[in-house]
């Protein structure tokens, strides 16, 4: 996809990746980035606002927790199941068009959530909101390559990471404040003005779609999309099941179903004329490594959300208000670190910055695994700040590396794959790291003694540190294989105008290892 101004002789010729121009007029770059930033902020708020209002909704609708938790799960499942397909649809039928559709769907569904008279309709509206979020997550990052010049891609990724972290940090506190001041419906109405503003900015300032000749409904892999959605839904349900009688058997059955359907998906992709995930993408070592490290790191970050409240409230004896305040430190540090991380990536290369971020994460996790409870809240928050700062640096650099030199006709699906890897890491972390914490505490963590919680925290973060070291090894192996392969391998021999015959790596490509 490119701007209409890109038409004319040579518009479809390949350009060196190091000096590709932005498809957006220089004067429109800032408002275009503002629209993308709002899209990313709304994606984070869509996830972060709802959990804070669940106790109120249980009272208002006189519903058990098993019912109201689906207000969160419906959104999560929709995003996880559809984000990759949303990215592919954007590649085939126009990213701007479908980003506008996603923002519209999200905004209308938010109003539907606020107006819902029953918990069932609220859950349905949240599922629709999740569909809109899937398109927003999949397509927002895909626009960076045609919105800003190459030398500013890292800073743009840092800005989007900052907005995601701001939404994550703001969600719980804003949800609680709005509920207390105006009632639960205000929680779902709050994103509406931001959604309208994002729609106006995206419509006015992002480049128009130019669909390639020959792209049509037959090129979209409907069967593969449905199989992947079923596999991911079964997996996410297995990972988010609560405890209770029969939950272990149900989880095992869901995991078996997910594995079976995933096998059918792989078989269907091998036979598909136009697979959901292009084969050249799957064969790219740097991309595979980037997606794997993203999933591992997201699993680690979920540890802070699973373990943190128990460590602060039970092991350290802090009250609810102070616990909530300290839990916001991590996302706030990530928000502050996002833009500097982008500048580091632009200056020193994405690969070096990725390694720096992972090293900081490993240091923070290792510190949390050995710090004594006698140091109090500072002993927990200081290493947590190092861990989350490292996460912000990693996320910005890894996203930059993965998206570097991706041809325009595949940016949507690759961006969607990044979103999928992150979501899979989060849902896996909620289950796996929660289980590690419970086993390490050797008792029910809800009634565990402070000493047992502290022991569980140290062991869980030791496992988290091991996962970060594994991510470092995966990143190094991917870098070596990518260098041996001579680049990304993502060049497209045929595609839309603007793709040309190949995308040649620019001066920074060797540094990024993408």
UniProtKB/TrEMBL annotation:
Keywords: Antibiotic resistance, Cell membrane, Membrane, Transmembrane, Transmembrane helix, Transport. It is found in: Cell membrane. Residues 1-23, 484-514 are annotated as: Disordered. Residues 32-483 form the Major facilitator superfamily (MFS) profile domain. Pfam families: MFS_1. InterPro entries: MFS, MFS_dom, MFS_trans_sf. It comes from the Bacteria. The chain crosses the membrane at residues 32-55, 67-86, 98-117, 123-144, 156-176, 182-202, 223-244, 250-268, 289-312, 318-341, 353-371, 377-394, 420-439, 459-478. Residues 1-16 have a biased composition (Low complexity). This is MFS transporter. It comes from Streptomyces yangpuensis.
């Amino acid at each position: 996809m490119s701007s209409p101004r890109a038409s004319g002789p040579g518009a479809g010729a390949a350009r060196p990746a190091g000096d590709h121009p932005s498809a957006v007029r220089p004067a429109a770059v800032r408002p275009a980035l503002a629209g993308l930033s709002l899209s990313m902020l709304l994606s984070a708020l869509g996830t972060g606002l709802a959990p804070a209002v669940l106790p109120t909704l249980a009272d208002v609708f006189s519903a058990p927790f098993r019912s109201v938790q689906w207000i969160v799960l419906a959104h999560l499942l929709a995003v996880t199941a559809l984000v990759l397909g949303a990215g592919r649809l954007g590649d085939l039928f126009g990213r701007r068009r479908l980003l506008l559709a996603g923002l519209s769907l999200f905004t209308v569904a938010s109003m539907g959530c606020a107006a819902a008279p029953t918990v069932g309709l609220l859950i349905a509206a949240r599922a629709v909101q999740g569909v809109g979020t899937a398109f927003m997550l999949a397509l927002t990052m895909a626009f960076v390559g045609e919105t800003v010049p190459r030398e500013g891609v890292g800073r743009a990724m840092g800005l989007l990471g900052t907005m995601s972290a701001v939404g994550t940090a703001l969600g719980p506190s804003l949800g609680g404040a709005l509920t207390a001041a105006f009632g639960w419906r205000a929680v779902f109405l709050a994103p509406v003005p931001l959604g309208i503003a994002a729609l106006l900015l995206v419509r006015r300032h992002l480049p128009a779609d130019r669909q390639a000749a020959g792209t049509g409904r037959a090129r979209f892999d409907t069967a593969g999309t449905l199989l992947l959605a079923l596999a991911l839904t079964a997996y996410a349900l297995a990972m988010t099941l609560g405890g209770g009688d029969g939950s272990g058997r149900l989880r095992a059955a869901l995991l078996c179903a997910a594995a079976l359907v995933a096998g059918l998906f792989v078989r269907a992709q091998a036979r598909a004329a136009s697979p959901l995930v292009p084969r050249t993408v799957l064969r790219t070592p740097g991309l595979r490594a980037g997606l794997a490290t993203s999933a591992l790191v997201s699993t680690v970050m979920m540890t802070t959300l699973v373990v943190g409240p128990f460590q602060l409230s039970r092991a350290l004896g802090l009250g609810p208000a102070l616990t909530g305040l300290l839990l916001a430190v991590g996302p706030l540090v990530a928000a502050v670190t996002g833009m500097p991380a982008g500048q580091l990536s632009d200056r020193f290369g994405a690969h070096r910055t990725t390694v720096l971020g992972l090293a900081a994460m490993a240091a923070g996790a290792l510190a949390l695994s050995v710090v004594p409870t006698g140091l109090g809240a500072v002993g927990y928050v200081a290493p947590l700040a190092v861990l989350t700062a490292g996460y912000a640096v990693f996320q910005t650099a890894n996203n930059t590396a993965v998206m570097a030199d991706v041809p325009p006709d595949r940016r949507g699906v690759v961006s969607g794959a990044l979103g999928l890897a992150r979501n899979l890491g989060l849902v896996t972390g909620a289950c796996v790291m929660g289980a590690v914490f419970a086993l390490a505490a050797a008792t029910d963590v809800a009634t565990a003694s402070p000493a047992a919680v502290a022991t569980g925290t140290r062991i869980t973060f030791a496992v988290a540190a091991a996962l970060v070291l594994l991510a470092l090894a995966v990143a190094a192996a991917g870098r070596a294989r990518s260098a041996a392969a001579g680049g990304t391998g993502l060049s497209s021999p045929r595609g839309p105008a603007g793709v040309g015959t190949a995308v040649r790596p620019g001066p920074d490509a060797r540094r990024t290892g993408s």
